């Protein structure tokens, strides 16, 4: 007589396989075509709006709508905590852990605060999107030479002096495991030079939605935690000891809100 205890497990596996197949069909036949069209439309709107002098509005709000639409289409429930820590009209340097390309949709769509992005120079080559990002005043970080890197920093400083806030992933690249790697000090030096607060952000879940190397998204819940900003000045630096200690302190704050699987 066969063990009937295996039957429920077998049925659940079949059901899960069917759900994954249905979502895969939905993703490629509905999500991706809509995403492709909405990306083109958003890029065109951003370019035209910014060229007509509306950079402050068009560099953020069309991208916010595009990002929220992407999260809704991929069936990823979003939870946000900590928006109350941000003060209107204050410029921040937002630093976040980098779990996935999906991080962009989570931050851009739900931070509720106009931001510019510091991004890899290679992204500027994406048709339409790269042009739209330039029109929106985003900063492409060129590491091809020390002089090019300094130009990127100078552009970021110019944007900050004009009252913008910037989002930086201090790990430099997406995680391959879901866990954080060490932070680079560039964003923290920028905050010190401009005497601007650092706003740490913890992202949970994007790694499960779209892990590095995968073309298929997965419907998973995601969370963004905005921590109280840290004042960055000579006094802060003296309390921490040095810039690396401030960088490590910020990383610890971000790590404190990570889900257990990402610690």
Structure description:
With 263 residues, this protein is α/β, with parallel strands linked by helices. The chain starts with 5 loop residues before the first helix and ends in a 7-residue tail after the last helix. Helix 5 (129-135) links the parallel strand 3 and strand 4. It contains ten helices and seven strands. Strands 1-7-6-2-5-3-4 form a seven-stranded mixed sheet, with helices on both faces. The longest helix has 46 residues, at 6-51.
Q: Distance N terminus to C terminus?
A: 45 Å
Query: Major sheet: order of its strands?
Result: 1-7-6-2-5-3-4
SSE pattern, N- to C-terminal: HHHEEHEHEHEHEHEHH
Task: Choose one word for the global shape.
Answer: globular
How large is the share of residues in beta strands?
A: 5-15%
How many helices? The count is 10
Main sheet makeup = 7 strands, mixed
Mean pLDDT reading? 91
> Radius of gyration over alpha carbons?
20 Å
Q: Which class do the helix and strand fractions yield?
A: alpha/beta
Number of strands: 7
Low-confidence stretches are none
Estimated helix fraction: 40-55%
Short description:
With 263 residues, this protein is of the alpha/beta class. Helices cover 49% and strands 12% of the residues. The chain contains ten helices and seven strands.
Notable characteristics:
263 residues, alpha/beta, seven-stranded mixed sheet
């Amino acid at each position: 007589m066969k063990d009937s205890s295996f039957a429920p497990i077998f049925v659940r596996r079949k059901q899960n396989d069917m759900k994954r197949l249905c979502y895969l069909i939905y993703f490629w036949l509905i999500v991706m075509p809509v995403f492709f069209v909405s990306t083109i439309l958003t890029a065109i709107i951003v370019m035209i709006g910014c060229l007509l002098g509306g950079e402050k509005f068009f560099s953020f709000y069309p991208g916010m709508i595009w990002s929220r639409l992407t999260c809704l289409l991929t069936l990823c429930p979003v939870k946000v905590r900590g928006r109350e820590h941000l003060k209107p009209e204050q410029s921040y340097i937002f630093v976040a852990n980098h779990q996935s390309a999906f991080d962009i949709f989570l931050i851009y769509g739900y931070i509720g605060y106009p931001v510019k992005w510091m991004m890899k120079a290679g992204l500027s080559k994406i048709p339409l999107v790269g042009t739209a990002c330039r029109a929106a005043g985003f900063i492409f970080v060129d590491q091809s030479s020390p002089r090019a890197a300094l130009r990127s920093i100078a552009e970021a400083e110019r944007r900050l002096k004009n009252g913008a806030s910037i989002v930086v992933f201090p790990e430099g690249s997406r995680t391959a495991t879901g866990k954080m790697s060490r932070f680079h000090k560039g964003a923290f030096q920028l905050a010190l030079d401009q005497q601007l607060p650092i706003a740490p952000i913890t992202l949970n879940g994007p790694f499960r939605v779209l892990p590095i190397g995968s073309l298929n998204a997965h419907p998973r819940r995601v969370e963004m935690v905005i921590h109280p900003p840290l004042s960055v000045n000579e006094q802060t630096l003296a309390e921490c000891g040095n810039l690396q200690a401030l960088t490590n302190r910020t990383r610890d704050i971000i790590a404190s809100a990570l889900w257990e699987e990402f610690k």
